[in-house]
Amino acid sequence: LPASKETVEQRLHYVKQDGQAVFKFAVRKTEEICRRVLERNNLDASQIDLFVSHQANRRIITAAADRLGLPESKVIINLEMYGNTTAGTIPLALADAIKQGRLKRGDLVLLASVGAGFTVGGVLLRWSL
User: What is the CATH number of the domain that holds 53?
Assistant: First the structure.
């Protein structure tokens, strides 16, 4: 609707979000996609060297990592440095992991993202650079 006196008074032109529902969905789906990717490769989370999730919310990342049984040492969180850069969060996190010496050739890396429209994706890769 175009903004008008009525839409402004009724707050109809604002984006609304049920934060608790989004949080629960994001944690559940991040865990599910990660487990699916690991199972397809006959692996379990203990074999992962680094977990890189979309950097939208620290609580979502840590809750998903906890559900997967991943220690903090295997999780990259750089949200405080850059904020949520949308599509750039995972590449930035990988770059930071390299700078910090936390990502090296041969590491098994699990990437996960939950995004707009409740889309979910996961990637398992062997770092070769």
Answer: 3.40.47.10
Range of the domain at 113: 17-126
pTM confidence score = 0.88
E strand or H helix that includes residue 59 = helix 58-68
Q: Please tell me the predicted confidence (pLDDT) of residue 108.
A: 99
Is residue 122 a contact partner of residue 34, using CB atoms and an 8 Å limit? Answer: yes
Q: What is the pLDDT of residue 100?
A: 97
CA neighbor of 125 nearest in space, from 113, 109, 104, 112 = 109
Does 3 map to a domain? no
Tens digit of pLDDT for each residue in 43-63?
999 999 999 999 999 999 999
CB 88 within 8 A of CB 78: no
Q: Is 8 domain-assigned? A: no
Q: Give the DSSP H or E segment for 36.
A: helix 19-40
